[in-house]
Design brief:
alpha/beta; 21% strand; Polyamine Oxidase, Chain A, domain 2; five-stranded parallel β-sheet; 17 strands; 397 residues; FAD/NAD(P)-binding domain; binds flavin-adenine dinucleotide; single chain
Length: 397
């Protein structure tokens, strides 16, 4: 039987391998690292003496491909989050706490309820979202919708920075438009925040490997692929810089943005949602998970040279203020992912390749391929599904 080789066991490669195995194909999954998961993984941290994720990953219930992937491997119930579409925020400048609360249906009547919408906004302000609906690749987020008072500062800015991981003065509004169309515009039922209750590996990675093994897939961890056999059916799901090395001449995104996560050993009351958006601070989001309080700084290239101790002290002071915690800095771990995602600028979007290559045996997957979505779990999984479909079906677009 024909073997299907998948290079890279990040979420794109895992999704592709699962789809192929589900269709009864012989799968060989190659992963350079000793553990699978790529940019979404959990591990034991000796300093904190517990397992942590490399970074907080926020999903929304409208991430259909992701939810389907989790149902396939049997872990949809391993996600947690608020029961409703609610987003708690704390403004570090004013000290105000509020909750954005969407109604579940498609008709957004939450906009007309002052207790549900963003404080300081009027219903007419939300017409701004229509501007985003018309966004093209060349439209920059800040130029298109920025400077628009409370709605931008208190909602669009933190959402956009999380989705695009790119400074908003240079980020294209197009992928943000796609995210909003698949979540908030579909109504609150598609916008419920979700994240792993235990860890990324427990939800996305380890059960997928077990699921694949149970279906006879061969998993080769710790084995870096250094060349591609043009006669073998192959899905290349490695990061863009590796893909460009393996396939000279391939045009791929080549500018990246960091994400910095600061994990503090601190148990706090997780509240209704188990996370908060932070307005006016260094980090944009903070998650309470068991004994760890973990803050995320997106578009973090500007902090690449900042010292860990200095950054941790600064972020902890903000968390202490926002959540009413003690001033003493607890044990912490700073995790910097310097190439967390490609920069979602118009020029970089234009470098995203299609799934198919000139070789009919070789297709591409990864959050950096041309999914229309920003570099996210949903984009990675969708790219993996598309790659598997393309290699199985010559007629697949
Ligand atoms: C800190 C952080 C926070 C994030 N937050 C969010 C979030 O909140 N929500 C969200 O949706 N997304 C988030 N993302 C993005 C998300 O993690 C990625 O989009 C997704 O994990 C990318 O998966 P991938 O399979 O495309 O790539 P990768 O995870 O990079 O997988 C590629 C794999 O290929 C392997 N590989 C490389 N070279 C070779 C080789 N030669 N041979 C074999 N294997 C090779 C790598 O080791 C890796 O395992 C975040 C990312 C980071 C880093």
């Amino acid at each position: 039987m024909t073997e299907y080789h998948v290079i890279g066991a990040g979420l794109a490669g895992l999704a592709a391998a699962c789809l192929l195995a589900e269709r009864g194909k012989d799968v060989v999954l190659h992963e350079a690292a000793k553990a699978a998961g790529g940019r979404a993984r959990s591990y034991f941290d000796a300093q904190l003496n517990c397992r942590i994720d490399n970074g907080n990953h926020l999903l929304l219930s409208g991430n259909d491909s992701t939810m389907h992937y989790l149902r396939r491997i049997g872990t949809e119930d391993s996600l947690t989050g608020p029961a409703d579409p609610v987003f708690p925020f704390v403004d570090l400048c004013s000290g105000a706490h509020w909750k954005l609360r969407l109604n579940r249906g498609r008709l957004p009547w939450w906009i007309f309820a002052p207790s549900m919408r963003v404080p300081g906004t009027r219903p007419a302000d939300y017409l701004l979202l229509l501007k985003l609906r018309r966004a093209g690749a060349g439209d920059l987020v800040e130029r298109l919708v920025g400077g628009a008072g409370s709605l931008y500062r208190n909602l669009l800015e933190p959402l956009a920075i999380a989705a695009l991981n790119t400074p908003l003065d240079i980020a294209s509004a197009l992928p943000l438009k796609v995210v909003l169309a698949e979540t908030i515009e579909r109504g609150g039922a598609s916008s419920i925040p979700r994240f792993p209750a235990i860890g990324l590996s427990e939800s996305f990675v380890d059960p997928a490997l077990a699921w694949l093994q149970a279906r006879g897939a061969e998993i080769r961890l710790g084995q870096r692929v250094t060349a591609i056999d043009p006669d073998q059916k192959t899905i290349l799901a490695a990061p863009p810089w590796v893909a460009a090395e393996l396939l000279p001449g391939l045009i791929v995104p080549d500018e990246f943005e960091a994400i910095c996560n600061l994990h503090f050993k601190a148990q706090v009351d997780p509240g209704e949602a188990k996370f908060w958006g932070l307005i006016g601070g260094t980090a944009e989001w903070v998650f309470a998970k068991g004994e760890i309080l973990s803050a995320t700084i997106s578009a973090a290239n500007r902090y690449n040279d900042a010292g860990n101790a200095e950054l941790a002290a600064k972020v902890w002071a903000e968390l202490a203020k926002a959540l009413g915690l003690g001033a003493e800095l607890p044990e912490y771990r700073v995790v910097r992912e310097k190439r967390a995602t490609f920069a979602a600028t118009p020029a970089q979007l234009a470098r995203r390749p299609k799934t198919r290559t000139v070789n009919k045996n070789l297709v591409l997957a990864g959050d950096w391929t041309d999914t229309g979505l920003p570099a996210t779990i949903e984009g990675a999984i969708r790219s993996g599904n598309a790659a598997a479909e393309a290699i199985l079906n010559p007629g697949y677009p």
